[in-house]
Amino acid sequence: MIRWKRQGPAWIGELHLLDGRSAYVVLVGPRNAHTGAVLVLAGKSESERKTAFLDESVHLLHPLQVVDVLCLQERAFGDKGLPLPELT
Amino acid sequence: MQSRRYDIETLLDEVITLPSMPVTLDQITWLINDPGSALGDVAKVISRDPAIALKTLRLVNSAYYGLGKEISSIEQAVVLLGSKVIRNMVLTATVFETIRGSTEKLLRHSLACGLAMRLLVEEGPLAKLVVAEDEAFIFGLLHDIGKVFIEEYIFQETAAISKLIQHDGYACFQAEMQQIGADHAMIGGCLAEKWCLSPALINAIMGHHELDLCDEEFQIFAATLRIADYMAASCGYPSHDHGVYLLPDPIWHLANLDGSKMATITTRFLESLPSLEELIQMS
């Protein structure tokens, strides 16, 4: 399970990718928006940090992380009326 | 609170009375297995049970089945869908009757798990196996049926079980094992066995938390059901508060689902959630 924190309207989760790299997933909008979820890949320095849209990088994620991210995105930004998660 | 542990046989023989398979379902199963029976016979059996007939008709006409035209009689439904699909609908209606006294939280979780399981079966490797999509929904609907019986017959233990979950970090099935000596998956599996449901369904329910509890050939069903369980909880419909949901890698390896596949399945699942409200009204 991904641990989430809120920063303004964004939801940020820290995760380890399948290739071992550390990354953050940043949720800022609904699932149907290409720009709604961004993956920020950590680098040794700020200049090495890379970003990618989530829908183009799901192959880098564990399937469990994919479920976590999409479900949270729907709960936070979707129109299905799902309950918002409680932050622990 | 002191724990009162039972062995599973004592629990099922002396503490929990699992209901027999409802007569209507029993008769339909018998008719389906009888090569001499006609579709009209199945319709007659259902029509004799007004509560089940009404629920079956509402299910047939629901958005979940999406037939696109109104079905006004059981006879019409049986002819259109065939007796096996109708049997699964009657089983669904029967489960609705069984769990309607439970909490809305459990009902919502079970229905969401059914929707997820249906999509996992449609899109995943289980599509190659014998389970039909409407039967897949029943896997989800029934997977936590054991909780209904714990709530009904061993309700004096539920506070202690909740305490273990909330304060000691136990997963629900672990807390049940600790407190009463059996978990809801075992109890649900025994009910499925008593109702003569399919071996895949019995094993999947029994093993959806601990794969070792089901036969090896059915572990893929149990693993897939566990993922459906997780999806239902992740979208905001867990079966209980403060639960720890364990989903170790062997589950994913068995289910053979990767990130790209899960993106497709989860997206379809989230899109299907509005039909949950209709199913809840129906139950």
Brief rundown of the structure:
The complex is a heterodimer of chains A (88) and B (283). Chain A is an alpha+beta fold. Chain A has one helix at residues 63-77; strands at 4-7, 10-16, 22-27, 37-41, 50-53.
Protein architecture, described:
The complex is a heterodimer of chains A (88) and B (283). By secondary structure, chain A is α+β, with helices and mostly antiparallel strands. Chain A is built from one helix and five strands. Chain B has 283 residues and is an all-alpha fold. Chain B contains 17 helices and no strands. Chain B has helices at residues 8-15, 23-32, 39-47, 50-60, 74-81, 83-99, 104-123, 133-142, 145-153, 158-168, 172-180, 184-194, 199-207, 219-234, 249-255, 259-272, 274-282. The longest helix of chain B is centred in the middle third of the chain and has 20 residues, at 104-123. The chains are: A alpha+beta (88), B mainly alpha (283). At the A-B interface, helix 1 of A face helix 14 and helix 16 of B.
